Amino acid sequence: STDAFGPIASPGPRVLDIGQGSVARTTMRLALFADIHANRQAFAACLDAARARGAERLVCLGDIVGYGADPEWAVDTVVGLVSEGAIAVRGNHDNAIGVPSDSMNADAQAAIDWTRGRLNGEQKAFLAGLPILREQDNRLYVHSEASDPAKWRYVRDTSDAARSMMATELQITFCGHIHRPGLYSMSSTAKMTSFVPTSGVPVQLLTGRRWLAVLGSVGQPRDGDPAASFAMFDTASREITYHRVPYDVATAAARIRANGLPHWLADRLPLGR
């Protein structure tokens, strides 16, 4: 249902689209999600977990569709949340619904072709109309990275992270795309650090450094842990906490197989790869 997020239903402070008016500076607990990939079971579990942790605004970092078997539900859920104040940006799989991609592997392309046949005109228009990036206060939200968002580059290492950070003046960037959690920071002398965050352990994003937080995937984790991934960020304390949420993997995989999608898309879910 589109009102699954509870506290997010009340309209929040206005946010800034690139190039528009002034920013409303706010203090709130953000729940950040990336790479939902039409996995209803995983996304619903993450929404419940975020609500239980007091989330006040949802941020969706793209790839609402692709791979999974419930694209209609996923899009409708995000549509409803956005109408109530959530932030969303476009991912490469969302983009491929309207602009065919020549860089996807065969399984990904098969899922996009199938998804395109499932979505109605309004759902396709919503995906096509999502911005490629958004900013709020001193934070940038993007699916891939900031240096050339429409090229859909992965942040694999400190070199990739540095390129993204140097492309924006904003202090904190949140992204997804690679389906593995990671945190990168850059000092005032451009010295880079990186580490894999531990689930449930808050990390303060210190003001003396610039940060890039890579979200893991809600719907198709690839770090060896099948549990869905999302993060909470407190804009007052500047603490980010990554969370892993067990969900009904068997049902999500069965839905993929039942809809005739490539079996590897189902087989990989319990493996977290």
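The above is record 1. Record 2 follows with the same two-line structure.
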Amino acid sequence: MGVFNFVKQGARQLFVARPDAQKHLIVYKHPDQNIPLGNRVTVDQDECAVFFKNGRVMGVLPPGQTPMDAQNIPFLAPLINAFTGGNALIAELFFVRMTPVRGVTFGGPAGDIVDPSTELQVPIRVFGEFAVQVFDPVRFVVGYTGQAAQASDNDAVLKWIKDKFLMSVTTVLTELCEIEQKSVRLVINNKERLASAFLQRAPDLNEIGLRITEIGRIDPNIPDEYMKQLRDAEKELADAKREVKKKHIAVGGAQADAAARQFELDQQFNQEYRNVHGLAGGNLGAYANARMAMGAGQGMAAHGVGGGVAGLAAQMAVGAGMGQMMNQQM
């Protein structure tokens, strides 16, 4: 081995870090699982290092440069390989970027949603751009294809993230429709409110340790033929509501008239009750006879029994009868 190769091999053994050419990756897997003790692990300020063994997380290193030994990193003790005389450990080492990744474009079908106002099932498509950040590196590495990340796999990682995001679109839209009691057509038109909801929710991303930090652009839409169905159904519902409202108004008017008539009858009853006690001395029979006589007089006047000698005689007879009854009662 030449001097140059010796120095190069020695340097590789002394430092374990993400290569400069791989700084752009969200997750980078160290290619060698045999790591000599005494080496230094260098973790950049925008990342962390996660150690796995047999698919189980052993520990996480924060940014900095740390010697690889059990005294400085206690969780390394189970990783030390006895077959090497305790001079090396066996582990899978992942470097995970913790700063936001911006300018991630996405777009495509996001599934179907049942519109709460019309109960029609309509497909949703959404396009836009967001920034995403890893907040739980362990959950992210475990979730990403079972720790199978490759050194040049950034496009695959982003595709995985975008597919997960699209799966959460219908969930967030359904929640918004229920909270705001609006149709999906109206909800997707409020893009600012929609962007805010995706920042707060997106459960499929939370489950894999990711968080959307910014929605640069979002454009959900419904295919034209389904949009027409929604508008037609909403119009039918609006017409039906107007008819129901008219009927309620009509019923309310009839109830008001009935209440007014009942009030009039109550007033008349109260007045007659006072008359019974005042005029007839509380004798209901006498007052009833007097009311009958007055009613007869009003009826004769209304039906033309009020002119000529016969009409005059009839009215005089009624009057005489009333006078007689009142005198008897008094």
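Residues 224-278 form the longest helix (55 residues).
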